[in-house]
Amino acid sequence: MDGLIDTAPCGILLADDASLILDANQTLADALGYSLEALRGKEVRTVLARGARLYYQTHVFPLLRLRGEVHEIYLSLRTAGEEDLPVLLNAVRREHDDGPITEIAVVPIERRSRFEDEILEARRAAETASQSRARFLSMLSHDIRSPLSAIAFSADLLARGAFGPVTEAQTGELGQIASAGRYVLRLVSDVLEFSRLETGRVDVCPARVDVAEAADAALAMVAGQADGAGVRLERPDAPALTAWADRDRLLQILVNLLGNAVKFTGAGGRVTVTWSASPDHVAVHVQDTGPGIAPDRQAAVFAPFVQDDAAPTDGSVGLGLAISRELARAMGGDLTVESAPGEGATFTVALPHPPAA
Amino acid sequence: MSDVRARFNITESGRGQRPMVFAHGFGCDQTMWREVAPAFEADYRVVLFDFIGAGGSDTSAYDPERHASLSGYADDVLAICRELGLEDVVFVGHSVSAMIGILASLRDPGRFRSLVLVGPSPCYINDPPYVGGFEREDIEGLLAMMEKNYGGWAQAMAPVIMKNPDRPALAAELEELFCATDPDIARDFAAVTFLSDNRDDLGGVEVPSLILQCTDDAIAPDAVGEYLRDRLPHSTFRKLRANGHCPHLSHPTETTEVIRDYLAADRGAPWTA
Q1: What is the separation of C-alpha A25 from the centre of its chain, rounded to a whole number of angstroms?
Q2: Rounded CA gap, A348 and A110, in Å?
Q3: Coil, helix or strand for B132?
Q4: Do residues A212 and A301 both lie within one domain?
């Protein structure tokens, strides 16, 4: 070949139907380390890596025959120096006066090929890690929860004097053991629940739910915590509203949102529950007068295992909002937040309307 | 389990009585036979199919355990024969399917009249003094290449057609995408194909066979065809002028003629029931 084609920045090769190389350009000859004369008359397979010979015969050749062209085939060529040269290959088989000729263009992709190898390797590693995590979580469930429960239960029994008299100081310490045990149990349960949600293994049973009733039940459950923190809980009167939700799961979400709101608002603050309806959905809002969440942190609060550096540390692993959002989504809704720093935050649980009767 | 016709995407044609079953090789599907099979429609009941994972087959029928050896694929061939009521079958198998046909004939010799083996190899890996043509790392190179190629276009397109075997609207697309394969199954099939060693099965074959050996076949070299010729009982060896590994695609006329000659000379299977 000559002129432009010889120096084109890709390898070009012409082969006949017997897979003999008729011609090639200088770029390909240079890449393969052959002279053009040496290349002409060789069989195509002699410039393919051995695995590529199998791939060419079983995949590329049939497609060229049946469809007349192939695109973006990854192959390894074999150079005169016995090195593998990964390339991307396009080919077309066309009728010519002397019979059909296959025109092949190749672009070396050594760096890209290495990246692809790394990506494939990373995917395999991620799959392995995911399996290990599943095994670890199942281990957590069996090997940690049971002994923790036993520790908390035994400490309770001892504190109540079931095995003989205990001093006041001992009762206090035993109470610490029991409550620390239960606290860790809750963390482990959170991790397990989140992993179940993540893999779609949690069932929700939606039904008609009276939003006011669910809100009141949730408020009652955090009333003690709010009292202790000096936070006022408010639930203004509002028209009755029915959502399509799993009542226990909605309660779990609301208790989590209210508990967070109380925790972050601080003494003298206020947490308000309201609800509203749009044509698309029913929404329950939990609004606080706390410090608010900066816009660039609003997505992160829903990410698992993330906690605001500025937040009061309570040692929790930060799964509450991630779990709540997954639960809301499992019910066909969503959980979102609106906030401006210094002006508190409003978390909104959106839920579907009940289906028409 | 789906109907056998849907499961293996079976296509039947032809006006003859005696069934002629065409089995495609690794990497393609029944469209491979489009230049050869029609030539037999006048005299035979022509049956084409796709192995599970290839072409328009029902991938949900894939059984990783059963399909972990070629005998699982031989079971599939026998299931097709049984459920379509095929007797006295002329079986034409390309490449790995030649060996699959041999295994099926060992299981149920009375079912087959003859085996036409196109580019067969009982073992692709060298095992001195046996020359199969490949080393184990060559096969690993093939698997790596498949993984990279299927990561792209094939993976994006194949599942669409694979999972809707009964939607006729997809038939036109299917035509476009022949040789599409399910990437995971194809990878397993490649390993099963190229790492199998069926040399010990040859001696027990009772059904007469025709070995078609291509010229300069990179996948089944001359030495392999000659090995088969010397060890496969009741076999006829024909060296084709056709070069490469797919004579039914590259040299359909010669391939058809050689098969026709062999079948015309056939005086029936030597075994008696």
Answers
A1: 47
A2: 51
A3: coil
A4: yes
Q: pLDDT band for position B174 (50/70/90)? A: very low
> Could you give the number of structural domains in chain A?
3
For residue A35, give the CATH number of its domain.
3.30.450.20
Q: Which whole number is the average pLDDT over A209-223?
A: 93
| pLDDT tens for each residue of A298-312 | 888 888 766 555 554
Q: Are residues A213 and A236 in the same domain?
A: yes
What residues of chain A, 61 to 80, have a C-beta less than 8 Å from chain B?
Answer: 61-63, 65-67, 71-76
Buried/exposed code over B95-126 (b: 16+ C-beta within 10 A; e: otherwise)? bbbbbbbbbbbbeeeebbbbbbbbbbbbbbbe
> CA torsion angle for A67, A69, A75, A81 (degrees, to 10)?
130
Q: Which of helix, strand or coil describes residue A228?
A: helix
CATH topology of domain B4-265: Rossmann fold (3.40.50)
Q: A9: distance to nearest CA of chain B, Å?
A: 23
- CA–CA min distance B209, chain A (Å): 24
Residue spans per domain, chain B: 4-265
Residue of A44, A48, A59, A123 to mutate for B, most B C-beta atoms under 10 A: A59
Q: What is the DSSP string of A80-139?
A: TTS-EEEEEEEEEEEEETTEEEEEEEEEE-HHHHHHHHHHHHHHHHHHHHHHHHHHHHHH
Residue that is last in its domain, among A47, A74, A108 = A108
Across the range B21-25, mean pLDDT stands at 96
Residues found in chain B:
273
A104 and A12 assigned to the same domain? yes
| Averaged pLDDT for residues A13-23 | 93
What's the mean per-residue pLDDT of chain A? 88
The predicted structure's pLDDT at residue A313 = 47
Which of A311, A196, A301 is CA-nearest to residue A263?
A: A311
CA distance linking residue A136 with residue A152, whole number of Å: 23
Task: Determine the 3-state secondary structure of B250 from DSSP.
Answer: helix
Q: How far apart are CA B123 and CA B141, in angstroms?
A: 17
| pLDDT value at residue A2 | 67
Nearest CA distance, B99 vs chain A (angstrom): 16
| Residue A220 belongs to domain with CATH number | 3.30.565.10
At residue B2, the pLDDT reads 59
Closest in B135, B145, B249 to A55, CB measured: B145
The answer on pLDDT for B171 being more than 60 is no
DSSP state string for B149-190: HIIIIIHHHHHHHHT-TT-GGGHHHHHHTTT-B-HHHHHHHH
> In the predicted model, is pLDDT for residue A70 greater than 60?
yes
Torsions phi, psi for A226 (to 5 deg)? -65, -40
pLDDT category of residue A272 using cuts at 50, 70 and 90: very high
Q: Which domain holds residue A256?
A: 207-351
Contact status of B33 with chain A (Cβ, < 8 Å):
no
Q: Within a domain: residue A10?
A: yes
pLDDT value for B267? 55
In this complex, do A62 and B149 lie within 8 Å of one another by their Cβ atoms?
no
Q: Are residues A56 and A136 in the same domain?
A: no
**Residue found by looking up tokens 């027990």 in the block:** B204
Query: Which H/E stretch holds residue A193?
Result: helix A168-198
Measured CA angle at B33 (ends B158, A61), to 5 deg: 65
Tens digits of per-residue pLDDT, A36-52? 999 999 999 999 998 89
